[in-house]
Amino acid sequence: MANDLVILGSASSSTPAASATALPSHLQGAIGTLVPGASVTFTPGAARIADVTDSPALRAAMSTFAQQHEVDAVLVDNRRRLTDFKLVAMDMDSTLITIECIDEIADYCGLKAEVSAITEAAMRGEIKDFNESLTRRVALLKGLDASALEKVFEERLQLSPGAQTMLRGVQSLGIRTLLVSGGFTFFTERLKTRLNLDVARANTLEIVDGKLTGRVLGEIVNAEVKARTVAEVAAQFGARPDQAIVMGDGSNDLQMMAIAGLSVAFRAKPVVREKASVAFNYAGLDALLSLFRKD
Length: 295
Fold this sequence. Notes:
alpha/beta; seven-stranded mixed sheet; 38% helix; 22% strand
């Protein structure tokens, strides 16, 4: 396999307004040391060294360089193009958006610490049964006024760096979009409308007389359901799962990432970074647009 080594700048240097020399000058000079003698091509917020040979030594050098300079260094198949993909599927909490919605909802009933602890353990893979972890967390919300959901959406929910730029970029290429989440439809449906996404799938919180009952309606969207949804939505748009890009951060994203043609770990837990095709630890989501050659 022929590879390109791509250096992706931090989110602050991969904004839509970044110039072609957005990477700091000292970094531009240092990049050449990764593959001595190779030519480096710079694009907004990124640099590319073409046709490198993968090796343990190169991987080690990339890891050291990335940590030292707080950038992402990834290898990609230089025969692939972004237009080879037909679907971009995204997790919501801590991937497309910066928060864990259930933790913020719990804050309105004074239980954020308790709920967050369960969320973190589940995302690290320490709680193997996602259904159990979600059921436990949602039960703690029983009796909360449903208006808290609107407050979270309006006051606390923020898109991750580069999210809108990434979505505009893939949508302009005719790539379909899927938001598939172990979170809640209250948020996914609003984001679907706001961001012009094609499909959204998540859990439905039961609300009776304006209060949360502490229960989820219907099938829980766990790791297996996420993977099944990616496959089904890909087929809906005439694509195979390996023509999908999947972006996620937690252990419940691993199954859908495993069936994808490209998996992106975004600000992810170690178990997810280890399994993903590429990891964005510093770059924004829009770094996806810089991974592949344009020619």
